[in-house]
Design a protein that fits this description.
The strands form seven sheets. This protein has a four-stranded antiparallel β-sheet, with no helix packed on it. It has a four-stranded antiparallel β-sheet with strand order 3-4-5-6, with no helix packed on it. It has a domain of 132 residues: Tetratricopeptide repeat domain (Serine Threonine Protein Phosphatase 5, Tetratricopeptide repeat, Alpha Horseshoe). It contains 22 helices and 28 strands. α8 crosses α10, α10 runs antiparallel to α11 and α20 packs parallel to α22. The protein starts with 11 loop residues before the first helix and ends with a helix. Helix content is 47%, strand content 21%. By secondary structure, the chain is of the alpha+beta class.
């Protein structure tokens, strides 16, 4: 054997110490920089008039902004509600309102000068002086939305409970939307897509969820003209409800008639609408580029750069027609200290290292394994599989190919948007899946080239190898589930699945398939352990036979070996070595192939197979054990066989698999004339043997018989051979023991 390939990658232990450490450092530094450092989002409230722009930094992440009829400005932050008093923010934290939760992070609304806010387990009312907590209603379930008008309040939780406060008491009723299962409401915990209430006019109640609905006090009636994916934008003073339906902003009056319609695609294909606000005659639409303002006569665009903002999130109009909004500012570069600049650079560098390090490790490991596989397979078979003959593509070529493919797909998508403006974004992963499935199907039709060591009709007929085709195709489907699992689950009204992250569904599916693959292989192994090969073959050829994975093929080959049919197992294993590209699958196939060749007395081929496995995985005990048994059966290099057996015993961590290793060691010791040590090794093996595994139990008896033959204890050896044949009469070791009974006298005479 040639020396092993150079440039060995770091061990797995080193990798799993270094990589989590880098991730921890990256996350910690990123958290500091984003929450407290130079990249921290600085929420700023601004007031715009045609004459000037005033800013009032909040310093905390802020959400909606509301302006009362008297011009009092309220915002919601991560610590509670804040009110602007003489240019300074006064915060009312959740603790100050006698609620145990950190913030009112669900919803808040104004009723005149009064405030109603919803938290995870309470509804809070502020009358300008005192806070009142209503926990007996909301404590049962999380509140999704709260509205108030004319001294009344309504809340809707995620269990479709509608609670109404008439100024004195609360009453609760169930929300029943015609054509919408009640379970659908429970599936949404999104701030933007979840159910939202609105109150218009004299307390007329509306609901925005999978459409727009009006409530007459008894039942809900759908308002025509909206799509199912509708999002509430706001209610204007004077009684007008605005929603975003598809790419259109729609405004409804109190009777449900559409009084306003605007196509947001006119703002640009990538425009995102965040909210609307208005008091006659001013109307403002906040979107990704700034504010689109109507002054009663004309529409005007006020870009966000005019306010010094990088992004706008909400807007409101005050009684004096001034426009208030929330935006985010980043400090000027000159405002960074040297320490902040250094931390920023380090924060930007660490995530790159976190991504690059596993890619580098995997690439180096793959190159090392590929070189080891080339050397091992060339030594074992004399030929290289077609995939190992190809030269590895340079990394830059792979990167260019990925860029070209992504550019082609996304370019096609954006070109299609010109002719099909409503084209959904899910067309992108569908295109990926189509290309993936198509290329897989075409490649699976390509005939395999004939190889000198190919045991299956060299260059055989074209056929689809579904064992290799289905994983990438199902993997593409899994990507779509990963990205759009919630949408699919909502369409099928599966609330609990919709609440589950897509990656959990993907990983859960992989886990379940692996469990299925192991389950069916275990069923075969159970029958093999009982030496019931007929039942094992029945399972292998039954309903569980699809798909024929690598584990399933290895299980079939091992069953054929144990049942005394190694010549049928050999083609399966050689096909795996030829066509499978994963190093571990080839290694396991080579290891089992060595045993199969040994069973056919092809000692040189078996030795090369075991040596190839040792080159690919130097810590595989079965390879050393097989190499020892090959030398013992061939009758050469007995001292080396003893070293191989002892090395296998040192590497073997599973005690139940130690018995055949002890037996091989005893065999080698007996051949070398060390009878006492051989007897001790046999006794150790007898203690460790798994007596439930009949083929291996028969194998131990056969090896013990060979050990006693080497010690010239023929009569005792015959007893062990007879016992082995009785334990597994139809199996390989039982048949081998029977042959040894017939050949033993001749061998002794020789």
């Amino acid at each position: 054997m040639d020396p092993q390939p150079q440039r060995r990658p770091p061990s797995a232990k080193v990798f799993w110490v270094v990589w989590p450490t880098l991730i921890t450092l990256a996350l910690g530094s990123l958290y500091y920089v984003v929450r407290h450092g130079p990249l921290a989002a600085k929420s700023t409230v601004f007031r715009w008039t045609p004459e000037k722009v005033e800013t009032f930094p909040v310093g905390q992440l802020s959400y909606p902004i509301r302006v009362s009829d008297r011009g009092v400005v309220w915002v919601q932050t991560i610590k509670g509600l804040s009110r602007l008093e003489n240019g300074v923010w006064r915060t009312f934290p959740a603790a100050a309102s006698a609620t145990p939760y950190e913030s009112f992070d669900h919803d808040f609304t104004l009723d005149g000068e009064e405030v109603w806010a919803a938290g995870p387990g309470s509804v809070v009312h502020f009358d300008g002086q005192h806070w009142t907590v209503y926990a007996e209603i909301a404590a049962l379930h999380d509140v999704a939305s709260v509205v108030a008008a004319n001294g009344q309040a309504w809340t809707l939780d995620h269990e479709d409970n509608l609670a109404h406060f008439d100024g004195k008491t609360w009453t609760v009723s169930k929300v029943e939307l015609p054509g919408v299962p009640s379970s659908a409401l429970r599936a949404f915990h999104s701030r933007w897509l979840g159910p939202r209430l609105a109150a218009m006019g004299e307390g007329r109640l509306w609901l925005i969820f999978q459409g727009v609905w009006r409530y007459d006090g008894k039942s809900w009636t759908p308002v025509p003209g909206t799509s199912r994916d509708v999002r509430m934008l706001g209610v204007l003073k004077g009684g007008a409800l605005y929603v975003l339906s598809g790419s259109e902003v729609l405004g409804f009056d109190a009777k449900g008639a559409v009084r306003f319609r605007y196509d947001t695609s006119k703002l640009g294909t990538s425009a995102m609408v965040y909210g609307v606000a208005g008091r006659w005659p001013t109307f403002v639409l906040a979107y990704s580029a700034g504010l689109y303002r109507f002054d009663g006569n004309n529409w005007k665009l006020e870009r966000k750069s005019q306010f010094g903002m990088s992004r706008l999130s909400d807007v409101a109009v005050a009684p004096d027609q001034s426009i208030w909004g929330i935006g985010y500012q980043l400090p000027e570069k000159a405002a960074y200290s040297r320490a902040e600049t250094a931390s920023l650079l380090g924060t930007l560098l660490l995530p790159v290292i976190v991504v690059v390090y596993p890619l580098w490790y995997r690439g180096r490991k793959a190159r090392y394994q590929r070189a080891a596989a080339k050397q091992a397979l060339l030594h074992a078979t004399g030929e290289l599989p077609s995939d190992l003959k190809r030269k590895d593509d340079p990394a830059w070529m792979t990167a260019v190919g990925v860029v070209i493919m992504l550019s082609a797909i996304y370019g096609t998508y954006w070109a299609a948007k010109k002719f099909w403006p409503a084209a959904p974004i899910w067309l992108v992963p569908v295109c990926f899946l189509a290309l993936h499935a198509g290329s897989t199907f075409v490649l699976s039709l390509k005939p395999r080239k004939a190889m000198p060591n190919d045991p299956i009709h060299p260059g055989g007929a074209r056929e689809i190898d579904w064992a290799k085709s289905w994983p990438p195709i199902l993997g593409g489907l899994a990507v779509i589930v990963l990205l759009y699992g919630r949408v699919i689950a909502r369409s099928l009204h599966l609330p609990y699945v919709a609440a589950m992250p897509g990656f959990a569904m993907l990983l859960g599916g992989q886990f379940l398939f692996q469990m299925y693959d192991r389950f069916r292989a275990r069923r075969v192994e159970q029958q093999v352990k009982r030496a019931d090969y007929a039942k094992a073959r029945k399972i292998l050829d039954g309903l569980l036979a699809w798909p024929p994975t690598a584990l399933w093929k290895l299980t079939r080959a091992e069953t054929l070996l144990y049942s005394g049919k190694p010549e049928e197992a050999e083609p399966i294993l050689r096909e795996m070595i030829e066509t499978y590209e994963k190093t571990r699958q080839r290694m396991l196939a080579l290891e089992l192939l060595g045993r199969v060749l040994l069973a056919q007395s092809k000692y040189d081929d078996a030795r090369r197979a075991f040596e190839a496995v040792i080159t690919m995985a130097p810590t595989r005990p079965a390879a050393f054990s097989g190499l020892a048994e090959t030398r013992l059966l061939h009758g050469i290099e007995i001292g080396q066989a003893l070293e191989n057996a002892r090395r296998a015993r040192q590497l073997q961590a599973d005690r139940e698999r130690l018995a055949p290793v002890w037996a091989d060691e005893a065999w080698a010791l007996a051949t070398l004339g060390r009878s006492a040590e051989a007897q001790q090794a046999l006794e150790a093996g007898a203690r460790d043997i798994d007596r439930r595994h009949r083929p291996e139990l028969a194998g131990f008896h056969w090896r013990a018989g060979m050990t006693l033959l080497a010690l010239e204890q023929t009569s005792v050896a015959m007893q062990w051979f007879v016992k082995a044949a009785e334990i597994d009469p139809e199996g390989y070791y039982g048949q081998l023991a029977a042959r040894c009974q017939r050949r033993a006298p001749a061998k002794i005479s020789v």
